[in-house]
Amino acid sequence: MEPVVELNNVSKSFKGFTLKDFSLTVRKGFVHGFIGGNGVGKSTTIKLIMNLLEPDRGEVSVFGLSYKDHEKEIKQRIGFVYDEFVFYEHLSLAEMKDIVKRAYKTWDDDLFYEYVNTFQLPLKKPMKTFSKGMMMKASLTIALSHHAELIIMDEPTSGLDPIFRRELLEVLRSLMEDGGKTIFFSTHITTDLDSIADYITFIHNGEHIFTKDLFEMNEDYALVKGELELLDEETEQEFIGIQRNSFGFVALTDHKERVEDVFGDTVLIEEPSLEDIMFYTKKGAADYVQLNS
């Protein structure tokens, strides 16, 4: 599988935060989800991929090319959908299109108007009058109208209503049908990825926790529920993170078959959501820090 984005041992430090020896491979033709809480390094990673930040250490390549020698070529092939307002708010979408199209050799007016009609966007109104949902549709329309091969989306569904979030996911599914495009989808709303992602990378506090394909995650991970007396120093080693309450415990494992052998029918085993995996992995990391501080 051809790599589209590669980060090799990349580090970037700011006051109070460091992205630490981060490595990532995004492969052509797939939807790659990038999950983690707020402030853990998702936007920093995207800025490094977009060459909006330079790494302190490590290497970044996109389409097998380095930004040092091929920045214009790389950016011609990327469409970027951002969570914040990035347009001239006093302009209309038609006026914004006339500005942006000059930057792309492959700009396609017919494709632009196709998405305008699909999203029912007004062409003549000032963009400052757009709702957040309309602004996201406009951003996606512009990102897609130059036949971008890599679509990078930074928290695209944050603050949007469930109806538009579902519409957006349907658009993304249709984009992936020809196999020629790649989507890198950063979000803390993990339910948006449950039905569309092929691969998931989890980042926490600037560190790469894992990259797995979604099928592999469904096979390996499990939520385990049982009574507190089942836990001891040995059995707790089977879990990534544990939450105790007055009714018993809920824990996450990434070795489902082993837990089934250890506990048998004394526990209830369920399939976790991506949100569960994030929560219990972070909880396990916090408990480790607390025990070792």
TrEMBL record:
What keywords is this UniProt entry annotated with?
A: ATP-binding, Nucleotide-binding, Transport
Instruction: Kindly name one Pfam family recorded for this protein.
Output: ABC_tran
Organism, as annotated:
Pontibacillus chungwhensis BH030062
InterPro entries, alphabetized: AAA+_ATPase, ABC_transporter-like_ATP-bd, ABC_Transporter_VariousFunc, P-loop_NTPase
UniProt name for this protein: Sodium ABC transporter ATP-binding protein
Pinpoint the ABC transporter domain residues: 5-230
GO molecular-function terms, A-Z: ATP binding; ATP hydrolysis activity
